[in-house]
Amino acid sequence: MTLLTNQQFLFWAKFPFLVCLILAGFIYRQLTHKNNNYLTLLYWIVNPILIFVSLIVGQFEIIPVLFSLYAFLLFKKQKFVGSYLSLGVAGALKHFPFLWLPTFLIFTPLKWSKRIFLAILSTVPYLIALMLQSNAAMLSMFQFSENTKMLGLGLQLGTQLKISYYLIGYLLILFRASKQKINFKNFFETSFLLTLIYFLTTQWYIQRILWVLPFIIILSLKNPIYRFINHAINFIYFGYTLIIYPKIFDFELTRPNFYQKLVKLKRAIPLNEGLSQTIVGTLMWTILLLSGIFIFIKEKKSRNQPLSKLDLGLNLIPLLLYLGYIFSPWFLVLQ
Predict the structure, then answer these.
(1) What does pTM read for this prediction?
(2) Distances in whole angstroms, Cα of residue 164 to Cα of each of 103, 153, 259, 291, 330
(3) What is the distance between the alpha carbons of residues 23 and 81, in angstroms, rounded to a whole number?
């Protein structure tokens, strides 16, 4: 039996992800000033996408997301050394957090000499990680699709030059940020837009959604429109994953070891992949686009709406539907 099929090993291998998910929930609660509201913490913990990516698929994105959220919390408290170092740790685990570094620099209320020092400081954890793994395999990560395909889509000028859609959007967002007041609200919104433009202009894998999801969850506590967007993303995401990455929806993942000789059953839901991918991909892109548009719509008055048990229930439904799908062939066998 290999480690990848050893259920005990897989449980303990994913256990740190569960710890990080819960710790991230406490940081998220502090970011939203909801320290005494248990529903706020549960709203994070029972989010179906966080559970699916971290505890079912077993992607480690939740660890750098934890350090990123901590960097945001320290930035809000104006503890900039710790904030930049935490961002650097997140960047050492995954390159994505360094996309926020210009935002940190723009909205840090210090002299530029000190900002540059903090930016250099943020690279220390990354350089340490690089030195510990300075081999050909580690260096090849710079050519991995995550780091190169994000610039693949763009305007073709002649036969050689291509201007990336992502790069255009990224620079425009930073230009807008440079004209704004230095406060945490503008810092948070700019970081959200820089994250969102990645999902609107590049091809992304299912675990990447964890980078934009915390922004939407936080915004959903303040604005009922984002509450709706959050629930919509939860439902669309599982359709997106089912159709574009169907192997993850494989009931054989639930098969016990002693049941190896079970005859393989066909899918419970036959799909027209081409049309289905277009529809669900468009829905996901549209809902993410709307989440960005509403940032620019200023509300006349606060529309804070307390969380309810219904919101927790709506969080759980997509995950229960997923589990129902992958277990459905078992009911066919039992019949």
Answers:
(1) 0.84
(2) 20, 6, 50, 22, 47
(3) 21
Backbone angles phi, psi at 202, to 5 degrees: -135, 165
- CA dihedral for 228, 230, 233, 237, sign (positive or negative): negative
Which candidate, 74, 91, 290, 295, places its Cα nearest to that of 184?
74
Amino acid identity, position 189: E
Asked whether residue 162 is domain-assigned, the answer is: yes
Q: Kindly tell me if the per-residue pLDDT of 101 is higher than 90.
A: yes
Does pLDDT of 66 surpass 80? Answer: yes
Given a contact cutoff of 8 angstroms between Cβ atoms, the answer to whether 130 and 138 are in contact is: yes
* Domain annotation covers residue 144: no
CA distance 284 to 319: 17
| pLDDT tens-place string over residues 168-225 | 889 999 999 999 999 999 999 999 999 999 888 887 777 888 999 999 999 988 888 8
SS3 45: helix
Q: How many CA atoms lie within 13 A of 100 on its CB side?
A: 33
Residue 30: domain span:
3-132+151-334
